Amino acid sequence: MNCPYCDYDDTSVLESRSLPEDKGVRRRRECKKCSKRFTTHEKIVNLDLKVIKKSGVLEDYDREKLLKGVKKACYKRMVSSEVIEALVDEIEMKLLKRQTTQIKSSDIGKMVLNRLKKIDELAFMRFASVYMDFEDANQFRLFIGCPVKINN
Length: 152
Ligand SMILES: [Zn+2]
Hints:
The protein is of the alpha+beta class. The protein has 2 domains: about 1-45; about 45-145. About 40% of the residues lie in helices and about 20% in strands. The chain has 5 helices and 6 strands, in the order E-E-E-E-E-H-H-E-H-H-H. Strands 1-2-3 form a 3-stranded antiparallel beta sheet. Strand 1 (about 10-20) and strand 2 form a beta hairpin. Helix 1 (about 65-75) crosses helix 4 (about 120-130). It is globular. The N and C termini lie far apart (about 55 Å). The structure holds zinc ion.
């Protein structure tokens, strides 16, 4: 996204808002060079990506599904939908840059977790408990870096 004023190719996002009915995302941006502000309307193109489920089944990548999972983890937390949209955007950008068109669902889960950990600890733990499919509580505690061992 180049600045319409000076054509500089790096801008920061001040605000993101999802438009209704899947019409894309409206963003308020600021040029990092001339500091002028402008608004963009971005339509997310569907990623031509297959997700490999744990069962081995291939499924089309579904942004809404991923969004829903993250939103659920952030339920009643102080995480705005702008932050959640930006998190998913960032992951999609990463996925777009990959050479392959298939990715394990657990890899996407890890990408979410890496980011969620910095945003909200509880949301991170909720997401981890759903996505990582731990065998027991100790495995979960090990994963989140909690040293307390539980004896069942
Ligand atoms: Zn500029």
